[in-house]
Amino acid sequence: MVKVEFLGPIGVDAMELEAKNLAELKEILSQNTQISKWLELCAVALNDEIVNDINQELKNGDKISILPPVCGG
């Protein structure tokens, strides 16, 4: 199981899911309409490190953070 947290305005509670890689996790998350609209806009962190490889392998206990775009001043 991996823990997925959704930061900022996404407004979804953390989930624990079974997924072998980020591509499989994206497929699972895209089935939730509240989350799916954010998936193409957000960065993804795996254990607090930004990752870009959709085929990144996931291990039991990994923490995935879905990070929406932000701006500041």
Automatic annotation (TrEMBL):
Pfam family membership, one: ThiS
InterPro entries per UniProt: Beta-grasp_dom_sf, Mopterin_synth/thiamin_S_b, ThiS/MoaD-like
UniProt protein name: MoaD/ThiS family protein
Organism annotation: Campylobacter lanienae
High-level lineage: Bacteria, Pseudomonadati, Campylobacterota, Epsilonproteobacteria, Campylobacterales
